[in-house]
Amino acid sequence: MASGVSADDRGSAQANANDTNLASPPLAEDSSGGSAGARSQTASEAFLEEITQSVSASIYEGRYENGRRYHAYREGAYPLPEDEREQDRLDLIQHWFGLVLKGELYRAPLKFEHDELSSETPRRVLDVGTGTGLWALDFADAHPEAQVIGTDLSVIQPEWTAPNCHFIIDDAESDWVFTDRESFDYVHVRYLYPGIADWARLWQQSFEHLRPGGWAESQEISAWFYSDEPGFEHSNIQYWQETMDDATSRIGKRFNRAHEQKEHMIKAGFVNVTQEIIQIPMGTWDKQNLEVGKCALLNAFEGLAPTSLAIFSRVLDWDMPQIETLLAAVRNEFLYCKWKTHVKFYFTYGQKPADD
C-alpha cells in the first residue's frame, strides 16, 4: 500500500432510510342538502395541492450529508450528490465528452433529413439519467424536428428549455413511466455508471421502449485508471480504486462496468451492436491530447470527493479524516503526474430489429 494511508482505515457500515406516512384527506360534511359533492371535491383538491407542494418541496430540498446535498426522490438510489458544485462537474463532463467526440452528440448511425422528414428520422428521443440536461438540450437544439425527453431522479434541469425538449422525474431502474404507444426512435445513456445496479434490465427496458429499427446508445467512462508503469500497483490511486470497487460491489452497484455494455445489449436483443473504445490521458503528460487530458484531471479533482464521500462513509464506515487523507494522496499523484495514467471511453450502440 502506498504512503499516506494505513490499513486501519478500513471498516463497514450501512445506510438507513426514513419512511414517510401521509394522512387520509379530510371529508366534507353535507349541511345544505345539495352541494356536499362540490365541497368534498374542493376540500380534496385543496388537500391534494397541499400534498403535491409538500412532496415537490422535499424533492427540491434534497438531503444533506458530509456537507453535500443528495437527491430526495428514491433516496439513496444514486450515491453521488446533486448540489451546485456537482452540477458544475456534470457540465464539465458534458464538455469533456464533446472534446472526445469532436463535437458530436452520438455515435449511432442516426439518419436526419433536414429538408424533409423521412421514416428513419428520429422523432422521439429519450435521454436516460439526463443530469443537468445539457445533452438533451443540445440534441433538441441541433434537431428541432425531434421531441427530446430527459429523465432523472434529481430535479436539477433548467426551468426554461427548448420547445421540443422537456424533463420528467423517473427512476431508470424502476419500470419506466412510458406506455407502449410512447415508443422512441433513439435512447441515449451517458455517464450513468454510479447509479445502475442491473444493466441487463436497463437495456431490456430500452429495447422494449424502442420502435422497430430504433437505436440505443451507451456512452460510459471506465471507472478505472490504467497505467503500465512499474510500481503503479502500489500507488494511492490503485488503492483508492480497489477500495471503491470493493465498496460498490458490496452494494450491488459496481462502478467499473463500462466494458460490459456490449454483452448486455446483445443479450437484450439488439443487433448491429458496435463498441468503440477511446483511450484518454489523465493530466498533461500526453502533449498531443492536452485539452482532453486537462478535463480528465479536473474531473478527477472535482469528482474524487463526491464519488467517495457517501460510499466510503456509508458502506465502509470511514470517517471524514480517513477519507480526506486518502483523497489528498490521490490528488497529489494525479497533479504531479507521478504515474502516467489513462481512462477509457466506451461508446456502445445497437439497433432493435426492424421486423421485431
TrEMBL record:
Pfam family, one: Methyltransf_23
Source organism per UniProt: Diplodia seriata
Compositional bias per record (Polar residues), positions renumbered to this chain: 13-23
Stretches the record annotates as Disordered: 1-42
SUPFAM superfamilies: S-adenosyl-L-methionine-dependent methyltransferases
InterPro entries cross-referenced by the UniProt entry: SAM-dependent_MTases_sf
Annotated protein name in UniProt: Uncharacterized protein
MF annotations from Gene Ontology: methyltransferase activity
